[in-house]
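new request in #modeling-help
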Amino acid sequence: MNHISLPDQAGHFDAFGGRYVPEALIAALNQLEAEFDRASLEPAFWQELDELRRNYSGRPTPLTEVPKFAQHCGRARIFLKREDLNHTGSHKINNVLGQALLTRRMGKTRVIAETGAGQHGVATATAAALLGMECRVYMGRVDTDRQALNVARMQLLGAEVVAVESGSQTLKDAMNEAMRDWVASVDNTHYLIGTVGGPHPFPKMVREFQRVISTEIKAQVRERFDRLPDAVAACVGGGSNAIGTFADFIDEPEVALYGFEAGGDGVETGRHAASIQGGSIGVLHGMRTYILQDADGQTMESHSISAGLDYPGVGPEHAWLAATGRAHYEAVTDTEAMAAFQLLCRTEGIMPAIESAHALAGVIRLGQRLAVEQPHAEPLIVACLSGRGDKDVDTAITYFGLPGHPDLYTGGVA
Amino acid sequence: MTLSSSAAFSAASAEGRGALVGYLPVGYPSVAGSLDALRALCGVGGDGPGVDLVEIGLPYSDPIMDGPVIQQAGTKALERGVHTSDVFAAVEAVRETGTPAVVMTYWNLVDRYGADAFARDLANAGGSGLITPDLIPDEAEDWLAASENHELDRIFLVSPSSTDERIRSTVAACRGWVYATSVMGVTGTRTSSPSAAPELVARIRELAPGTPVGVGLGVSTGDQAADVVGYADAVIVGSAFIKPLLAAEKAGRPDDFSGLRAVLADLTAGVRRRP
């Protein structure tokens, strides 16, 4: 496996990836690719980014052992990579700071972004404020309703939030609207894609900006244990925190890679957002990858309690990692995720994003399975805690039927 | 042997004018009703000429190049049960009027159907070719082969932001004609400088002499159409034909094509106007 060479020149991860976009965007993608490649070779670029990461975002993020939570995970020792402690509350800032610096280098003055849970939108609005750029964020109407706190944060940071009314009114439709905007505004605008998807060079570039997660995990585990972890795990929507968690371990075959997709009501029910587990190969949003589609190739609506995972596609590198068997992908239901959400809150005093709770539910299952398969092992598993749960409090109040909430005991999920 | 869509351009040229290409989606106002709308676009039931070439849209759930008007009609068509296979019946309906037809759709639908199977069924229905707004020649290996096999036109897009090198290579990959997107933007909107389209056509003429050029995105009136065919071989109109259909549906008369015919009369007169 020669992973370092992927994607190839045309942005392909074997059969996945590529550029399925209007010709009108090719010049901008070429410009971005050239700028990224040039910047990648300049120590000064990485120095500036590193400075922002340390003194603005708050890196390196800690690696927290969670022993009481781990009591539910067989004999595994569980560590959380605390991306929730980044400025703006998630891993999204890692990628945004990098792309914002590239935007400035390209002489563009406006950024647009799409967001599901709002974490990427908040990060983009933050970077735009920091670097003095105009910012517009597209968000599905359904998501603006369930993530009202993050909408307000973006607006306070000076961004314009556009609620998208078309289609399923979630992340996929926000991405369509952002692409339309970009086709019309490409001269002065950078489309700051938040996930490790879209047309080349986005999957490669976002991976490189998120790689810092696994680079730090590797160093932190080595420092404490003088070895590598047995497994790393992360939730997968589009898959940016997962690719960041995997990146430095892909060429370390002794480290198992686990991605946990949003299983919604269960993959078998058809109401889910698990593109790898429950989808098929197709083209969406500029890339060939696993998508949720019907017999004609029309995109099917995804379902997840987590707005951030509610997307009917997945980054092409994940499709490739799944197809080659290098990484393992499993689906986690809403119910399992919310149980893990509550468990981490109660056992460790850490409130995870509901996205991250999918990874936590996955490691509970993984740890218990390993305890059966390898009865004498004490595996060391690192799960990426991609974001904090503040934004999801309303969803959790409704889900758990907490007293005092106006929608108390409605049985539904906001 | 299928009919070449550029024959429509040559026929118009022989009359000393540019060609009018009209777009309507299959499935709107209904699957059956769209066939009647397409016939009306070809001049059936009216007292004037129809378009020279029909571009039949196959609606897609995620149409990133479509403007709000086309997207609205496409979304309704999907809700009303349009499927990929319906596009071949639409092609047959258009061909029966004597007007050539090309299909315009996003790549995943063709990919899912199977590129070669799609080409085969399109050719069997009498279709001339396919316009692929989100498939560039760089990713089109399967389609290059399938369109060769079934002798179909393949119409790729070029844009004002395309480099000279990309204009050359894209035109070389086309069969039939090349689609010049006149403005940087989605269909039905007109935001960039009025000189973008003539400048792009002039570049294509210089870089790939002899290639027929159709200009699309943003034209809605006979005056604009007359202007475009002053420098291009054809003008492509979509949203302007759909607006009266949406209005007719809103008025409770989805089978009323009088508005469509009025726009058609204005545009067909436009491309026949003497400079």
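bot summary: Confidence is low (pLDDT under 50) at residues 187-191 of chain B.
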